[in-house]
Amino acid sequence: MFDFEEEINRLPLKPGVYLMRNKENDVIYVGKAKILKNRVTQYFRKNSNHTPKVLVMVSQVASFEYIITDSEREALALECNLIKKYKPKYNILLKDDKQYPYIKVSINEPYPRVMMTRKPADDGAKYFGPYMGKGTIKNTLDIIQTLFKPPTCKRRFPQDIKKGRPCLNYHINNCIAPCTGNISKDEYRKVFFEICRFLEGKYSDLVRDLTDEMMTASKNMQYERAAILRDRINSIREVADRQKITDASHNNDTDVISVALEDNIAFVETFFIRSGKVIGREHYKIDNVRGSSENEVITDFIKQFYAECDFIPNEILTEYEPLEKELLMTWLRDIKNRKVVITTPKIGEKAKLVAMVKINAEKALSNYKLNQLKIKENSGVLEMLKEMLKLDKIPSRIEAYDISNISGSDNVAAMTVFEYGRPVKRKYRQFKIKTVDGADDYASMREVIYRRFRHGMEEEEKIANGEMNIRDAKFLPYPDLILLDGGRGHLSTISELMEMIDNNTPVFGMVKNNKHRTRALVGEDGEVDISATPPVFKLITRIQDEVHDAAISYFRKVHNQINSELTKIPGIGEKRRLALLTKYGNIDKIKEAQIDELVEVESMDQKSAENVYNYFRNKKDS
Prior knowledge:
By secondary structure, the protein is α+β, with helices and mostly antiparallel strands. Helices cover 45% and strands 19% of the residues. The protein has 19 helices and 20 strands. Strands 13, 14, 15, 16, 17, 18, 19 and 20 form an eight-stranded mixed sheet that branches. The protein has a six-stranded mixed sheet with strand order 4-10-9-8-11-12. Strands 2-1-3 form a three-stranded antiparallel sheet. The longest helix has 42 residues, at 348-389. It is flat and about 100 Å long. The N and C termini lie far apart (77 Å).
């Protein structure tokens, strides 16, 4: 039996960390103290003015333990590590396991490349970032591709110079194409040093040097080169203008933090400014904040966010002053090995910047509340669906599948995902059918469902072996319900497959009427009429429309790509394209066909067959 009075008397007058445990011996709270005895004793004084949250926490404490440290700074670092380890119920928890990406420019290599990477290394390359916010790094790489046209292929230089034909990017002026031998090694490397200057934000220096180079090219009557440089200069100026922040004189690396708090949820919005440019933004949902002040939320956010952050800026602007600010700055300085300043501006340009971030935090909280209301509303519909289909649980994640082809050619499939009754488009998946010839929708559906679960099982194994983080999985979690765009035949085929792979996910077919609209769901026990339940009917109709549109869109994309590929071959017009697709069904089989086989296709002759054969063989070699 834990003797509180005796253990409290034993507490040392030293700094350290304390852990509160419940009767199941789970850690429910982790805290740090300058003097352990004084801080822990406060929790168990009857006359202490505790918040409701602390009172509830204390009522569940069955024991506590402590760890003595040499200083309060050490206690702060240990507290951060233990909170991350135990995720205690009554600590404010930042649920953020993102690994922010960097842009790597491999100037340590004779022929550099530019790419995205998750982990910077001490390998002589240049790393820029981290880049925060969805799409930020992709947009930056797209801008680099447009401005500087670095190669994106897998060719190796200088080994592959003048080997094979240049790829499509060269022909559409989207690559400087070192493979052609038309650019020297020094000129090639110069492009990548320009990319580095661009990523460093040295726009004015870069523009000045490019302008001098443009004028020289013009004087030497190299007008094509001068025009390329002119366009590059204009594009860089446009990018520079877009990336200016409110305070143009503010040129430090700075994070700006604000919080919106309501009930038990808070959203912390952070803007990331590097070299005077906003390079990204993120908002973070923080749970278990009931009874906490904005100052406490900001404090706990700083501790948890920067404990293992790859990059700590020189300055952190906050809407509310964090508790123990001086201690936090000392702790951050120890991590960064440079001075870090935390300020809470009240006037001036910095205060305006914080106010802008505050608006974004409030918007993130508002959007979350709206989403929760929609989820709650949809939960009622999902509950109805659960009862109608006699499911064991509410189908929070529904996956729907459809096959699309024309006369059995270009077989493709789409998988759509609805979570809590709402489509989640980033989780949609597309499949090219690999094992089925002709218009066999049953076999095609079987292949797709099998591949979907095989991918899921492979990801589970990688996660278990530590080879993959669950956030990177594309086929997990598994669905609570599978809907097939088809009737009994599809259901029977997939039910056999699910039994074979020992998976008990419920499967239903979406049965259509003569107007191609869903009228019922069919399961192993027969049809379930959904027309009499408007909310369920509306949801299933939307799912059926969504998966049908996704499959058709993917089919058109694939079909257009194939048509586009065939149009590049001399002597292959629309009639011959159609004949080839009708005969072979997909581009892969056309690629593998021999000349004597191609000649036998309707409307093809010896010359056109040779053109097709040679085109794909030359592509394979290049």
